[in-house]
Amino acid sequence: MRLYHAFILPLTLTIMLSSKMLASNIDSLEASLPRVSDSLKVKILCDLCWEYRSLSAEKALAYGNKALQLSKKIDDKSGIAQSYNDMGIVYIGTGLYDTALEYFNRSMDLRVQLKDSTGIASLYNKIGIIFQKQGDLKKALQNQLLALDIYKKLKAELWIGYSLNNIAIINQNLGNLNASLDYHKKALEYRIKMKDKYGEAGSYGNMANLYLKLNDTLKAMEYYQRALKLFRKIDDKEAISTMLNNLANIYIFQQKVNMALPLLKESLELRIKAGDQKAIASTLLRYGEAYLVTGEYNKAIETFYQTLYISKNIKVLEEEMYAYLNLGKAYKAKSLYDSAYKYNQLYVSLKDSVYSNRLKEQIVEMQTKYESKEMKHSIDLLKSEKNLAEIRLKQKHNENLILILVIFLILISSVFVFYRHKTKQKLEIDAAKLKYNEQKISAVIKGQEEERHKIARELHDGIGQKLASIKLAWSKLISDLNLEIKQGELNIVTSLIDQTAREVRTISHQMLPNELEKFGLIAAVESLVESVFKNQNIKVSVDTYGISNRFPAEVELTVYRILQELLSNIIKHSGAKKVKIDLLQKISRLYLIVEDDGVGFHFKSNNPTSGIGLFNIESRAKSVNGSVNFDTAIDKGTTVLISIPV
Questions:
Q1: Which of 73, 119, 344, 429 could cysteine-pair with 5, CB 3.0–4.6 Å?
Q2: What does the DSSP 8-state code read for residue 188?
Q3: What percent of the chain has pLDDT over 70?
Q4: How far apart are the C-alpha atoms of 577 and 594, rounded to whole Å?
């Protein structure tokens, strides 16, 4: 039977009993119920609630309610407090944190009346865990510090170690990494002193995580190995697989894949035996990253798809998000840019969703050291609100008024700082998203241009040269054979060869304009206009102003491609009779203005129905930090203004 009022829910790994041991203990407790007094029956019912917590929340709560009703019937305040405590633990396991908090507060009121210091400390610990799960890290830290204060007075060194460990983790989540390391070291001292091997191993693992955040890889590996060694001794397979995974992750980062793969293999085998789908997905993710390092992209893709399948089934967003990201990397490495772009988009979309939810759920307040005066005031106020007589400060009325005033001022300042920080965070996230989208557009356009250059070279140097050779051979054959009777038919074939060669040169020229590379933007624009409108019944004029030098190659190519798209749209859709093109430079900006007197159209920015051509124009302009303005309406013609910094 467990000890009452001494339960702690550590924030790190928890020891799990085997199902056989649990079943044996439950059978023994249930068999003893009919033979004992009501006061002892309350304790047994509470124990059954505890034992069933990880097997069946429904049965656990049923036994907890029986204990509560019987305790009330015989007026056993200790039993009532314990019933509320145990059912609160069950509600934590089911994710009903508000209900759990309500039950813990009811238990707290009774334990204060009973002056049960150990039980009060235990409740502070569990309440702190709830606040941490809800993202209110300041309240979580306050409650853990209250628990630590009581345990120190009681000299309960085992629980002092757990409280210090929990405080260390909260500080890490708050970003106070050095404070977190200090608390972990203190916790480790207590755990070694108490010969708490499980707690000692947990501290090593937590400190390794912290050293990783501090970019001390050697220390992290040392402490993961210490943790792994102890977890192997106590045969905690779940913890063993976690340490193996963490060590493998470091080796992958160091590109020592041959050292990572055996660790991942053992970790995956343990997790498959345990049936932990989330953990399996995590290990598969590491496997895929290892294959990326070794260049085995097909294996990597297959592994990431397995990760994606599992994470979607169990709705684990982190693993799903990183599976998308890594699939994008793998496809990019294979030069499959469409697939890479698709999975990068899925990653960005899911990442935006995850971080948006986190921003709504978490309240991050900094500077929460145990020794600070502000935290001392907050602790004292919380003690007063809880009406804890044995730990309430003996202050005069005027001192309380001053304290309330100070707390009020601190809260106002904190709210101001929080909202300013939140606004800054949003701006940083928006800026990062904008930068990513710009990089993505630039990468797509760059890929398109490289592909066009490649095709153009193939057409010009390959097919074009072969057509020229065919024509020479054909002309020689005609001359040698001297077939005057069939000369007309042969000339038709010769003409077709010439026509095909011209078309190949035209396509090659459109994809890789020689004038742009050799003579610059103005010459290329004039050549483009001449070729586009050569056989069109459209009057066109081209004017240039203030342009005396060449522009960066990327800018010139962007303007050329935009003009190509605009002229193509005019011919296909506008029905225009006149087109005016202006290309001018003013100080540090290059402007392209294209006007036509055509039928116009309805245009809305960022509207998918506006067409892929207009989207391409906007994307290309954004890729060089430029902007596009469309001025158009039905039967009013169209004016397009492109502005690019140079």
A1: 119
A2: H
A3: 74
A4: 14
Domain 1-114 has CATH 1.25.40.10: yes
Host H or E run for residue 595: strand 589-596
pLDDT given at position 107: 92
- Label residue 199 left, alpha or beta by phi (over 0 means left) and psi (-120 to 50 means alpha): alpha
User: Model-level pTM?
Assistant: 0.47
Do 167 and 155 form a contact (C-beta atoms < 8 A)?
no
Confidence of residue 55 (pLDDT cuts 50, 70, 90): confident
- Residue 372 and residue 147: Cα distance in Å, rounded? 17
Q: How far apart are CA 459 and CA 464, in angstroms?
A: 6
Q: How far apart are CA 260 and CA 281, in angstroms?
A: 17
The per-residue b/e assignment along 432-466, b for 16 or more CB within 10 angstroms, e otherwise, is eeeeeeeebbbbbbebebeebeeebeebbeebbee
Question: Nearest 5°: phi and psi at 630?
Answer: -105, 125
Tell me what the pLDDT averaged over the chain comes to.
79
The CATH number for 284-357, chosen from 1.10.3720.10, 1.25.40.10, 3.40.50.150, 3.30.470.20, is: 1.25.40.10
- CATH architecture for residues 520-645: 2-Layer Sandwich (3.30)
The helix, strand and coil proportions of the chain, stated in percent and rounded to the nearest 5, come to 75, 5, 20
| C-alpha separations of 124 from 7, 127, 466, 641 in Å | 11, 5, 85, 65
- The whole-angstrom separation of Cα 269 and Cα 281 is 12
DSSP state letters, 504-568 = HHHHHHHHS-HHHHHT-HHHHHHHHHHHHSTTS--EEEEEEES--SPPPHHHHHHHHHHHHHHHH
Contacts of 291 (CB under 8 A, 6+ apart): 297, 299, 300, 303
Q: Of the given ranges (316-320, 354-358, 432-436), which has the lowest mean pLDDT?
A: 354-358
Tokens for 315, please give them: 């709705």
Left, alpha or beta for 328 (phi > 0: left; psi -120 to 50: alpha)?
A: alpha
pLDDT, tens only, 61-81: 999 999 999 999 999 999 999
Query: What is the mean predicted confidence (pLDDT) over 143-152?
Result: 89
